[in-house]
Amino acid sequence: PQDLSILRNFDNPEDLAMPIWMGRLDVTTPAVGIFNELNFQVCYIPDNRPTLLGIDISPGVASPYSLADGAFGETRQNDASSKLNDPQWALRAGFSAASLRAYFYWYNGYQNGPAIDLIRGILDGTGYCWLDHPEQDVYGASFNYDFGKWVLRGEAAYTDEIYMLDFTD
Q: Which of the pair, 116 or 27, is modelled with greater confidence?
């Protein structure tokens, strides 16, 4: 994720990246029946840091990456991070058989980009416009098929929910 919380317009994108930590377990089997190999991967990601936006909380000071104060009142970001009780998870299962290699993916985590929650500020009495990062699941599959000099590749992904405006709990 990126840290865009202060004005750094001319920094390289790599310089804005925030490191997060994770644990990963990979298991691969030798040949099993028709399969050259079977593999499985589990990722445990306790650091839920989303992209940090430059939140404009001072009158007359604005970041190019933030929502300016005005009609919505002050803007705040709900960026739960580094909590061991709500980690992100990712699983990958795959196989190779003859010239085919295929993988299936699942990711359960928090939306990196913000969802704008206008109702929360009314309900909690602060009047803030909240930038929230709701939980989401992503499912995917990919394959490679080797034809000798040519390789056919394909991939697909499905995200169960992508929030832009978050009007509900």
A: 27
